[in-house]
Specification:
The chain is an alpha/beta fold. It folds into 2 domains: 269 residues, Glycogen Phosphorylase B (Rossmann fold), CATH 3.40.50.2000; 180 residues, Glycogen Phosphorylase B (Rossmann fold), CATH 3.40.50. Helix content is 43%, strand content 13%. A 7-stranded parallel β-sheet has the order 3-2-1-4-5-6-7, with helices on both faces. Strands 10-9-8-11-12-13 form a 6-stranded parallel β-sheet, with helices on both faces. Helix 4 crosses helix 5 and helix 17 crosses helix 18. The longest helix has 21 residues. The two termini are 17 Å apart.
């Protein structure tokens, strides 16, 4: 069979093809359109493109990527109703509802566009579709069109196990979590090391919504996919990966951390301020605290004030990301100067910088950075571990509580800043991480995990490298 036509972005049809160069195979991708899910999908695209696959990305109007930043890929827009493509929701229960509605809203349009792409490329030149596990309707459409699918779970193996265990957790009374319950610290014996407070949840009133999300995610993996791709690595989650493999009938590919194989490129939804990288050069090694709460988490105006004065009172140099929309009720276009308390900038001008967004991987890699105050999203957690940077953890929702549990209890490379934020406790936590013996010990353990990640991702013998080889072979066999 002749190779399919070149994609619309003009990628070279004479590129090195898989399968000994016999033809150019296409892999189709559909990311969930939120930053923490877009980044791993585009990193996976980079890995597969590097192995010779042609890449086609389906995307919604909401948080649409810029094709000009990815000239080697083809982009296929999938329209959704006007009400679905506005500003991102703020409350986590609204985000969960939006994810469900987004998948359903794009189903019909995706069916039409996928059918057209399959006809254009010639069906047997398309190897598979890789979709985010949260997009069940996308899996259903591909299955009806007889296209093999692979599921990308952008969180940890432990978080997938938590989703899969949702029916059991509800049956045994662990869920819904009662916030006032004195049993929040009770261990979940069936899912160690989790306690009740660490389980993935978004509040009692949205329990049914979370049950539906978990069921859809697990259905996509167990009923409709030909394999599960996880952005994790053996040295970090060996026991958890063994459990997921034991419970699944499809192969599991632990090919992470993906950012070590493929740069994120132009998939950031916010403009990165790179000017502060030079500012970091002036500071001593491991002396600066990097603070960022990710692309979705938000806090109250009070918590921002207490955080600011705690950072100021610690005396520690810092680089702090205060993105638009970080504070409840503040206009998304508001500047960080308008959100921070009066007098903070003057009090910290000599040793701190505040930016709207930062190139996080490069910041964490910088020799001056010695600690990371994070919301404990999985991307941030693995990026910090891979650079040997210990963490202060302030989880807000979803899998962040479970990630924090692993950081503090299993890997022992950080600790939680829990409860109500007070400037005094913030000061103490920062000093513990950055200047005390505890922090030095966490930094040493983080350094050991950094070495383990390097082993997994380097050379033919690395576990993640071998998993990528197995994934490519699996794709070619579908």
């Amino acid at each position: 069979m002749a190779p399919p036509p070149a994609d619309t972005n003009g990628s070279d049809a004479a590129a090195v093809y898989p399968a000994a160069g016999r033809r150019r195979w296409h892999v189709l991708l559909f990311p969930l359109p939120y930053q923490g899910h877009i980044n791993p999908m585009f990193r996976l695209a980079g890995v597969l493109h590097g192995r010779g696959f042609a890449i086609t990305v389906f995307h919604t109007d909401f948080n649409a990527p810029d094709p000009a930043r990815h000239p080697d890929y083809r982009f296929v827009p999938v329209p959704v109703p006007d009400g679905m493509s506005g500003p991102a929701p703020v409350a986590i229960e609204d985000v969960v509802a939006h994810i469900d509605a987004m998948g359903r809203a794009c189903e019909a349009a995706f069916r039409d566009r996928l059918a057209a792409v399959l006809e254009e490329y010639s069906r047997d030149a398309v190897a598979c579709l890789v979709a985010d596990t949260h997009l069940l309707p996308v899996f259903e459409v591909a299955t009806r069109l007889a296209l093999p699918t692979l599921a990308l779970r952008t969180g940890s193996a432990a978080s997938y196990a938590c989703f899969a265990a949702y029916p059991m957790l509800c049956e045994k009374g662990y869920l819904p979590v009662q916030v006032q319950d004195l049993q929040l610290d009770m261990p979940v014996n069936e899912l160690p090391p989790f306690r009740v407070r660490d389980l993935i949840h978004i509040g009692k009133d949205s329990h049914d919504l979370m049950c539906e999300m978990a069921a859809r995610l697990v259905t996509a993996v167990t009923k409709l996919s030909s394999g599960l791709i996880l952005n994790t690595f053996d040295a970090l989650e060996r026991r958890e990966l063994e459990g997921v493999r034991r419970d699944l009938a499809v192969p599991v590919f632990d090919i992470g951390p993906l950012h070590k194989f493929s740069p994120v490129g132009g998939s950031s939804l916010l403009c990165q301020d790179r000017s502060r990288l030079e500012w970091l050069d002036a500071w001593a090694p491991e002396s600066v605290l990097y603070v960022s709460f990710g692309s979705l988490a938000s806090m109250s105006a009070r918590d921002l004030v207490e955080t600011a004065w705690g950072i100021a009172g610690s005396g520690v140099p810092f680089l702090w990301v205060v993105r638009p929309g970080l504070v409840h009720g503040c206009a998304s276009e508001g500047s960080h100067q308008q959100q921070l308390p009066e007098g903070f900038e003057a009090a910290t001008r000599e040793r701190g910088r505040v930016v709207a967004w930062a190139p996080q991987e490069e910041v964490l890699r910088h020799r001056a950075v010695g600690g990371f105050w994070t919301h404990s999203g999985w991307n941030s957690t693995t990026e910090s571990i891979c650079e040997g940077v210990p963490m202060l953890c302030r989880p807000y929702f979803g899998d962040q509580t479970g990630n924090t549990r692993y950081v503090e209890h299993v890997w022992r490379v950080g600790f939680e800043v829990g409860g109500d934020l007070e400037r005094g406790s913030v000061e103490a936590a920062i000093r513990r991480l950055m200047t005390d013996k505890d922090g030095a010990e966490m930094r040493a353990r983080a350094g050991e995990l950094k070495k383990a990640a390097a082993v997994c991702t380097s050379g033919k013998g690395g576990s993640s490298c071998m998993a990528i080889d197995k994934l490519v072979t699996h794709i070619m066999s579908l």
